[in-house]
Specification:
- About 65% of the residues lie in helices and about 5% in strands.
- It is mainly alpha-helical.
- It folds into two domains: about 1-70, Winged helix-like DNA-binding domain superfamily/Winged helix DNA-binding domain (Arc Repressor Mutant, subunit A); about 80-235, Up-down Bundle (Four Helix Bundle (Hemerythrin (Met), subunit A)), CATH 1.20.120.530.
- A two-stranded antiparallel ribbon has the order 1-2.
- About 35% of the residues are buried.
């Protein structure tokens, strides 16, 4: 009986991991309830609770008692977040993603802390406009750039906003690369909606987590594409080691008690 129980909850663990890996559940999102997962998987609530404990121990979800379960990291990656850069050279391509990774999560924090009602409305409008463009099969790159620019403006820091404007041309080039993958556009749209909600809720920790996850997702896609190109051309790129050993920011920042996730 113990063996059968173990097999059941292991299957639930794998099913949840698959939903996260496929993009059905994004970092920062609340999982369905224990009862709903049990019904979907055709298992007992006890098996789902055991699966949840395993996923929490692996760092994939966080259980907030009384509030639910939340995705905290990619199901297939308990890895060094800076591993993204191991396969990329030190040219403009790397520089723009370094800049995004440093700037945008903190801009999202400031936006969540400082955004006015008008800022929030504009951010939501841009997120909705990108979603409508995706559904209509229209180009989304400009709408994507506008969304991130509006986050920078809502942060109320003119120096950081100017820095973002200074790299917008390079950001467009990077987005042209990631836009080659249709599923990446759909995930970006979902991230924009979640980020807009976090800003509207004035939840800076959640805004940072979601923006960092959004940037990481874009990096993953770009790395896969450029690594494929480099392998075809026979070139070998150096690993980026400058950041290793330095103080690193946590990818999944836990919201404090009382904050809306």
């Amino acid at each position: 009986m113990a063996y059968l129980t173990r097999q059941v909850y292991t299957a639930v663990v794998e099913a949840i991991k698959e939903r996260i890996a496929s993009g059905d559940l994004l970092i920062g999102q609340r999982l369905p309830s224990i009862q709903q997962l049990a019904q979907e998987c055709g298992v007992s609530t006890g098996s789902v609770r055991e699966a949840a404990r395993v996923l929490e121990a692996q760092g994939i979800i966080r259980i907030a008692h009384g509030r639910g379960m939340f995705v905290t990291t990619d199901a297939d990656t308990r890895r060094d977040p800076y591993e993204h850069f191991q396969h990329v050279g030190t040219g403009p391509f790397l520089a723009v993603f370094e800049a995004r990774r440093v700037l945008e999560p903190e801009l999202a924090v400031f936006a969540a802390e400082r955004a006015t009602a008008a800022d929030i409305a504009a951010i939501h409008d841009l997120a909705a406009a990108m979603e409508q463009a995706v559904e209509a099969g229209e180009p989304v790159i400009e709408k994507d750039v506008q969304f991130h620019r509006q986050i920078a403006l809502a942060a109320k820091n003119p120096i950081l906003a100017r820095m973002m404007d200074g790299i917008n041309d390079l950001l467009v080039e990077g987005r042209k690369l990631t836009a080659q993958q249709p599923e990446s556009i759909q995930r970006a749209t979902r991230y924009h909606t979640l980020i807009a909600d976090a800003v509207a809720d004035h939840n800076p920790l959640q805004a940072r987590l979601l923006m960092l996850a959004h940037v990481n997702d874009a990096i993953d896609i770009a790395i896969r594409l450029t690594t494929h190109d480099r392998r075809q051309s026979g070139t070998r790129t150096e690993a980026l080691t400058a950041w290793r050993g330095q103080d690193r920011r946590a990818v999944a920042m836990e919201p404090k008690r009382g904050e809306v996730v």
